[in-house]
Backbone:
């Protein structure tokens, strides 16, 4: 795939002009073709022609994950169903979240992912091994297609053991590893145990999680490699939304694909560079499922000034947390709202609970404590175990990760939780 990255070096005025043109085009399409957005804008007394500058963006309503669920299955599509060539679905509370793609959308995602990998340093000469959990299957597909578009040889993930993956890495001389930071650290430990030195490995592209600088430097020294970090939102554009360049000074945002804002989560007002807030995005290049001011729930901040690499795209720092009751575990976003829905499905109500996230050899493991009280009652211990198994099965089917249920005394749960619903051990 021929790459043209000149857009990343536009002047500030060039960006403003292009963003405004794309924003106005997107607003016209959603107002005419998506009744949900027409209704939201009508309620605010807005029409597309009222948005005459980028500063007017703040006048537009927000889109939330709840809106995505409420408009299941295809009420947010801006094209006829016959133009949709692929559907991705994600778990929701009241209904699944569905994202459609036109053929043009798929090509755009492939180009963006290829650009992300190219900026990270991946080339057509590389052998790329992807090691991600099944819960990241959509990213796996997009990363595989992006690397293949560059002409690289790609080894997708398999359900085999870590030892098997290390053998494949050694025998096929993997040069680029794509995984989460936690799994990369786990692999490094396993390499030491097995006496394996990955001489062919030169680069790790780390996605789905942040990484402390000290830990990153230790990983690079131990494996003798370079690393790059990537950022994305599955409901929006995918793994190529933000990526590091050779300067490694924050994520360059793909500003030709979406318009980013950082807002105060409480007031919804835009924040200046340097102040931490919630990342909000408006897609500019999506045909099937455009999103207007989508609240990602991710907390971060804009970095000031341009990068020394010469790119003029906006940059953000690492994600510093979530505001909407979600937590990232091994790159997979887990919502407390969804956990409560699964609990209600299994138990008939939502018991008092605490989600414990334990780290063992760099990998996070989940344990859900449920308080034993008069509400959580079954005639037998076997009955309680049966309900726990039902929840555990549904959780793994939904998120692709195991979660063990543990019944504990209510007083002990409250003492440990101290009013929190998530505890990191």
Residues:
């Amino acid at each position: 795939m021929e790459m043209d990255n000149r857009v990343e070096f536009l002047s500030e005025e060039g960006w403003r002009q292009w963003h405004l043109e794309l924003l106005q085009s997107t607003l016209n399409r959603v107002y005419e073709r998506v009744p949900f957005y027409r209704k939201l804008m009508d309620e605010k007394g807005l029409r597309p022609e009222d948005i005459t500058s980028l500063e007017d963006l703040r006048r537009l309503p927000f889109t939330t994950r709840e809106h995505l669920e409420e408009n299941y299955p295809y009420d947010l599509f801006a094209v006829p169903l016959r133009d949709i060539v692929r559907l991705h679905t994600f778990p929701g509370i009241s209904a699944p979240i569905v994202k459609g793609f036109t053929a043009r959308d798929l090509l755009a995602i492939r180009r963006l992912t290829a650009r992300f990998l190219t900026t990270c340093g991946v080339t057509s000469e590389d052998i790329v091994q992807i090691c991600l959990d099944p819960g990241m299957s959509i990213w796996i597909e997009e990363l595989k297609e992006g690397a293949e578009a560059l002409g690289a040889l790609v080894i997708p993930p398999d359900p085999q053991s870590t030892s098997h993956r290390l053998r494949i890495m050694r025998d096929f001389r993997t040069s680029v590893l794509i995984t989460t930071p936690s799994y990369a650290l786990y692999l490094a430990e396993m390499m030491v145990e097995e006496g394996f030195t990955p001489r062919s490995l030169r680069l790790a592209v780390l996605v789905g999680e942040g990484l402390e600088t000290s830990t990153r430097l230790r990983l690079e020294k131990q494996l003798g490699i370079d690393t790059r970090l990537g950022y994305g939102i599955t409901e929006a554009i995918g793994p190529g939304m933000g990526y590091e360049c050779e300067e490694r000074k924050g994520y360059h945002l793909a500003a030709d694909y979406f318009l980013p804002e950082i807002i105060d989560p409480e007031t919804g007002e835009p924040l200046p560079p340097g102040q931490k807030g919630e990342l909000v995005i408006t897609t500019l290049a999506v045909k099937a499922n455009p999103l207007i001011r989508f609240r990602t729930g991710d907390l971060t901040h804009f970095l000031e000034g341009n990068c020394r690499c010469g790119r003029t795209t906006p940059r953000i720092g690492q994600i510093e947390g979530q505001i909407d009751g979600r937590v990232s575990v091994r790159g997979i976003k887990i919502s407390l709202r969804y956990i409560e829905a699964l609990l209600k499905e299994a138990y008939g109500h939502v018991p008092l609970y605490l989600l414990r996230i334990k780290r063992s050899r760099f990998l996070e493991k989940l344990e859900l404590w449920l308080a034993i009280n008069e509400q959580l009652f079954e005639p037998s211990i076997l009955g309680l175990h049966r309900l726990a198994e039902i929840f555990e099965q549904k959780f793994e089917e939904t998120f692709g990760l195991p979660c063990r249920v543990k019944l504990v005394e209510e007083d002990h749960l409250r003492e440990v939780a101290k009013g929190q619903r998530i505890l990191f051990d």
Summary: Residues 327-424 form a domain with the GMP Synthetase; Chain A, domain 3 fold (CATH 3.30.300.30). Residues 12-33 form the longest helix (22 residues). The longest strand covers residues 363-372. Residues 30 and 78 are 6 Å apart (CA to CA).
